[in-house]
């Protein structure tokens, strides 16, 4: 694997400076992980409140590392200083890679990425952290689709090793190599996957979550299902997992997979996740989902 990563590092564009679009949970986690591994990052969001949330996410992660004894306090300051927050794209012409982590909406992504092409250099790699949208669909209006690739991180970004690198039909081998090498430099385990709704992980995860909502619709208690799956050996049960991922994100991934593979997945009509979305209970990020988190927004439900 190391040999393979070295080859990608040779063939890709070295990432010495990066940028992240979107300062939500994922954007903040990606910016933090990049800065921690020595690649300074510009984090852009159009909303000041989102920038503050992204920085708060990075601060939380830094405090966690210092608390765990993994990072010396003086190094923590340097990592924090390596994250610049901004509401425009100043300095984007000097970055080697931009990771987009904005809302999971095809039209918005297309519009924002097409505009981004005007702010970056001609060789800058643009990666989307989309959880399930096809790279070819997002790339449709781009002038330089060869520079565009998927880089799908998992939540919580600092601890989840996997990154799916998605090769669109027009993505250049150099862009794939850049994404693989950058993910490896961030301490991650990159895998290259073909383009298609849900890529690899969400094609496996979605039927599992669908089976869970089916169980709940049949009358199962979600907490008991969580206890069972945790006793079975999984790190967290499906309800807690949805709270961590975000109910809105989970519902969107489901829609993409259901539309992409209509013969393979049967949606559950009376669906606990949709009920929670309609109630604005998106999970940990809104203080409650299946469980309540008001006392400790990132804490465990029990
Ligand atoms: N942020 C950063 N670090 C965290 C964290 C968080 N939110 N939660 C826990 N950690 C760290 C802890 O600090 C600890 O680190 P240490 O070893 O240095 O002390 C380590 O993770 C283990 O933490 P805990 O002992 O407190 O808790 P757990 O043993 O329950 O582990 C977990 C937490 C790693 C999050 C584990 O529960 C897990 O792996 N859960 C599954 C998460 C998952 O499946 N994510 C993917 C979601 S799907 C997705 O994102 C894709 C999208 O497209 C839908």
How would you describe this protein?
There is one protein chain. The longest helix has 20 residues, at 48-67. This protein has an eight-stranded mixed beta sheet. It is of the alpha/beta class and 302 residues long. It has twelve helices and eight strands. The protein has helices at residues 2-11, 25-36, 48-67, 73-81, 106-116, 135-139, 173-185, 201-217, 222-232, 238-245, 247-260, 272-278, and strands at 18-21, 41-44, 83-86, 97-100, 125-128, 148-152, 162-167, 189-194. It is globular. Strand 7 (162-167), helix 7 and strand 8 (189-194) form a beta-alpha-beta unit. The protein has two domains: 2-194, Rossmann fold (3-Layer(aba) Sandwich), CATH 3.40.50; 203-286, N-(1-d-carboxylethyl)-l-norvaline Dehydrogenase, domain 2. Helix 1 packs across helix 7, helix 3 (48-67) packs antiparallel against helix 4 (73-81) and helix 8 packs across helix 11. Residues 18-195 form the 3-hydroxyacyl-CoA dehydrogenase NAD binding domain. This is enoyl-CoA hydratase. In the N-terminal section; belongs to the enoyl-CoA hydratase/isomerase family. Residues 198-293 form the 3-hydroxyacyl-CoA dehydrogenase C-terminal domain.
């Amino acid at each position: 694997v190391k040999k393979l990563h070295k080859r990608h590092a040779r063939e890709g564009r070295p990432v010495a400076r990066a940028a992240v679009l979107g300062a939500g949970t994922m954007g903040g986690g990606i910016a933090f992980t990049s800065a921690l591994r020595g690649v300074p990052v510009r984090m852009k969001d159009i909303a000041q409140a989102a920038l503050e949330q992204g920085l708060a996410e990075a601060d939380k992660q830094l405090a966690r590392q210092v608390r765990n004894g993994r990072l010396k306090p003086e190094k923590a300051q340097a990592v924090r200083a390596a994250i610049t927050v901004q509401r425009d794209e100043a300095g984007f012409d000097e970055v080697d890679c931009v990771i987009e982590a904005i809302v999971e909406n095809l039209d918005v992504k297309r519009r924002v990425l097409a505009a981004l092409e005007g702010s970056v250099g001609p060789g800058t790699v643009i990666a989307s952290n989309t959880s399930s949208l096809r790279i070819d669909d997002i790339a449709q209006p781009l002038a330089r689709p060869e520079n565009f690739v998927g880089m799908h991180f998992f939540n919580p970004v600092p601890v989840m090793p996997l990154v799916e690198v998605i090769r669109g039909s027009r993505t250049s081998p150099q862009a794939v190599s850049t994404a693989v090498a950058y993910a490896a430099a961030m301490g991650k385990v990159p895998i290259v996957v073909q383009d298609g709704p849900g890529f690899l992980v969400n094609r496996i995860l979605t039927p599992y979550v669908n089976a869970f909502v089916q169980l709940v619709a049949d009358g199962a208690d979600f907490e008991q299902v969580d206890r069972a799956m945790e006793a079975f050996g999984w790190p967290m049960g499906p309800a807690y997992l949805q709270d961590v991922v975000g109910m809105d994100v989970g519902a969107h991934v489901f829609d993409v997979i259901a539309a992409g593979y209509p013969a393979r997945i049967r949606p559950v009509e009376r669906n606990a996740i949709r009920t929670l979305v309609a109630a604005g209970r998106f999970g940990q990020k809104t203080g409650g989902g299946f469980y309540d988190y008001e006392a400790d927004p990132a804490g465990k439900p029990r």
